[in-house]
């Protein structure tokens, strides 16, 4: 088996829950247990009410394309993947809840603003599954 | 509320030797054997001499840096032999940081914390020390820990989102979709900058380009082409500030700070050119603070004889023209057409060629050029009777700006 040569997450105390969810095939988002606002990237405090109480909530894995880029000249680790798409995906649960990810399963030129997408998990190593997106 | 208006002046400007690996094919700079600290010292030395001072007169020092080539202020103070430091700041703030440092220095002088402060930015983006994964712009792919990323990068790098260029491309894509801004409009920015650079012997890229050249330049990350991205370069720029009162007795005609402001909107993302949760990533931070800036200065956008605008990318100029009120939100694209931002146009922008064609020095080179224009020393680029101008520094959603007058 060839060695996986791309960056991998090295989870910390704030991010570990997210990646554990991915390994179970669940997309988890951090939600404030006091005012119920979702936030991403994971962080210690709610930006709306400043509560530090949060829980990981399984979300639907549905979203739509907020913006995207088609990478045609990438870093050496990704040279074999070009052209590839990185998008900002707006999750169904909250208007400003967005995450970055690759869109696979369609040609880059077919991607449109607000295109519906859904998550899937790519088990890139034994330890890590990456959340990626495909047309819904 | 206090004000910095007319309280502090720039009395000295300087730069180091500069060079660049500015072609897309990696080219090593002749400065590859020179440290960033040396470049900072060269720039500071020239600025201090330009002010008619010596390093023994300096009692404050400030610089900006980020995840990169940095000449920290203690090393530069040591190198200069500053006898006693009264004010010191190393501002970890990306491209918004260096103009912000000048504001902090001015505020410190006005508050009586220091008398003569040197502010600089020295960096080597084409050779050692900084994000050299790509000869134009930044990538984390050369970081030693690239293959095991922590924090925000965990949610970016594993997807091949490993450079500020890509995040900014997503921002630009959004502007294009939302407002119908075109590649020809970003192309007009690139072409104008090169026209200005042709008149500037400090500029690293002086060969004229046409719209055809622009449109044919390699698509790096659609919709961003090679010629949308600032240069990779090695060098440093510096300024010396003092109080308006002491500036009266100095060697050079003072250039006064009329207005200063920094800031941004909600939920900024420093490490991200595309703040992940911000309401609208395609807007310019300046919309949140340009009113404060103009109010302090007592002037408006229409009073500017020039604007030296932070240009990490062509389209960063377009956002900021909107954010600083030269046009309405979404109208930055049409604004840059028809020579409006060229020398002789309604609002000459980046008369030295900017970071797109002179070199990438976090707009301390923009400040240098602004002072030259206001002193009437810009040579072939001189704007007749230039009296007032704008200088900006920006990252995505955080910015800083000065309005200067002669």
In short:
Chain A is built from 1 helix and 9 strands.
Give keywords:
heterodimer; A: 136 residues; mainly beta; five-stranded antiparallel β-sheet; three-stranded antiparallel β-sheet; 1 helix; 9 strands; B: Peroxisomal Thiolase, Chain A, domain 1; ten-stranded mixed β-sheet
Oligomer: heterodimer
Number of domains of chain A: 1
Mean pLDDT of chain A: 95
| Residues in helix, % of chain B | 25-40%
CATH class annotation of chain A: Mainly Beta
Given the structure, what is the number of helices of chain A? 1
Radius of gyration from the alpha-carbon trace of chain A, in angstroms: 16 Å
Q: How are helices and strands ordered from N to C of chain B?
A: EEHEHEHEEHHHEEEHEHEHHHHEE
Uncertain parts of chain A: none
Here the CATH topology of chain A equals: OB fold (Dihydrolipoamide Acetyltransferase, E2P)
Number of helices of chain B: 12
How many β-strands of chain A, per DSSP? 9
Explain this structure.
The complex is a heterodimer of chains A (136) and B (406). Chain A is mainly beta and 136 residues long. Chain A has one helix and nine strands. Chain A has one helix at 16-23; strands at 8-9, 28-32, 38-39, 54-58, 62-71, 84-91, 98-102, 116-123, 129-135. In chain A, strands 7-6-5-8-9 form a five-stranded antiparallel β-sheet. In chain A, β6 (84-91) and β7 form a beta hairpin. The relative contact order of chain A is 0.19. With 406 residues, chain B is of the alpha+beta class. Chain B has one domain: 3-Layer(aba) Sandwich (Peroxisomal Thiolase, Chain A, domain 1). Chain B is built from twelve helices and 13 strands. Chain B has helices at 36-50, 73-80, 97-110, 164-179, 183-197, 211-216, 244-247, 290-297, 314-323, 332-335, 354-357, 364-375; strands at residues 8-15, 19-20, 60-65, 87-92, 117-124, 148-149, 219-222, 224-225, 233-243, 255-264, 306-308, 388-395, 398-405. In chain B, β12 (388-395) and β13 form a beta hairpin. The interface between A and B is large, with 47 and 45 residues. β1 of chain A pairs parallel with β6 of chain B.
């Amino acid at each position: 088996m060839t060695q996986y040569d791309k960056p991998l997450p090295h989870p910390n105390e704030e991010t570990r829950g997210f990646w554990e969810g991915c390994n179970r095939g669940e997309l988890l988002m951090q939600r404030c247990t006091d005012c119920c606002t979702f936030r991403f990237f994971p962080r210690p405090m709610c930006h709306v009410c400043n509560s530090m109480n949060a829980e990981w909530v399984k979300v639907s894995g549905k979203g739509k394309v907020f913006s995207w880029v088609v990478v045609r000249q990438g870093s050496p680790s990704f040279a074999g993947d070009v052209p590839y798409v990185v998008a900002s995906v707006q999750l169904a649960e909250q208007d400003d809840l967005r995450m970055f990810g690759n869109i696979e399963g369609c040609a880059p030129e077919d991607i449109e603003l607000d295109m519906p997408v859904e998550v899937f998990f790519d088990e890139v190593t034994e330890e890590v599954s990456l959340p990626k997106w495909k047309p819904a | 509320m206090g004000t910095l208006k007319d309280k502090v002046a720039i009395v000295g400007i300087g730069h180091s030797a500069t060079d660049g690996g500015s072609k897309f094919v990696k080219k090593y700079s002749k400065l590859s054997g020179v440290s960033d600290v040396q470049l900072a010292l060269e720039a500071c030395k020239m600025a201090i001499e330009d002010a008619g001072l010596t390093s023994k007169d300096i009692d404050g020092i400030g610089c900006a840096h980020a995840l990169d080539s940095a000449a920290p202020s203690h090393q530069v103070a040591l190198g200069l032999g500053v006898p006693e430091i009264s004010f010191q700041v190393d501002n970890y703030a990306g491209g918004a940081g260096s103009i912000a440092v000048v504001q902090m220095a001015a505020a410190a002088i006005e508050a009586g914390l220091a008398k003569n402060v040197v502010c600089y930015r020295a960096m080597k983006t084409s050779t050692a020390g900084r994000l050299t994964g790509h000869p134009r712009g930044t990538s984390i792919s050369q970081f030693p820990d690239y293959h095991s990323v922590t924090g925000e990068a965990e949610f970016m790098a594993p997807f091949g989102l490993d450079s500020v260029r890509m995040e900014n491309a997503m921002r630009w894509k959004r502007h294009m979709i939302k407002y119908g801004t075109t590649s020809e409009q970003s192309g007009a920015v690139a072409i104008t900058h090169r026209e200005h650079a042709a008149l500037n012997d400090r500029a690293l890229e002086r060969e004229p380009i046409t719209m055809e050249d622009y449109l044919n330049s390699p698509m790096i990350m659609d919709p961003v082409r090679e010629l949308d991205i600032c240069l990779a370069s090695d060098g440093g720029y510096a300024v010396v500030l003092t109080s308006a009162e002491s500036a009266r007795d100095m060697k050079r005609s003072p250039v006064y700070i009329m207005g200063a402001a920094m800031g941004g909107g909600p939920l900024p993302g420093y490490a991200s050119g595309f703040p992940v949760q911000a309401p609208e990533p395609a807007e310019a931070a300046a919309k949140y603070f340009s009113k404060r800036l103009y109010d302090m200065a007592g002037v408006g956008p229409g009073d500017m004889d020039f604007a030296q605008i932070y240009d990490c990318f062509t389209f960063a100029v377009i956002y900021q023209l909107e954010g600083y009120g030269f046009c309405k939100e979404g109208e930055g694209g049409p604004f840059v057409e028809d020579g409006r931002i060229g020398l002789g146009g309604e609002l000459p922008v980046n008369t030295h060629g900017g970071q797109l064609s002179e070199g990438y020095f976090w707009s301390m080179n923009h400040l240098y050029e602004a002072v030259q224009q206001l002193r009437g020393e810009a040579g072939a680029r001189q704007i007749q009777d230039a009296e007032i101008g704008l200088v900006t520094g920006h990252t995505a959603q955080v910015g800083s700006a000065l309005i200067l007058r002669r």
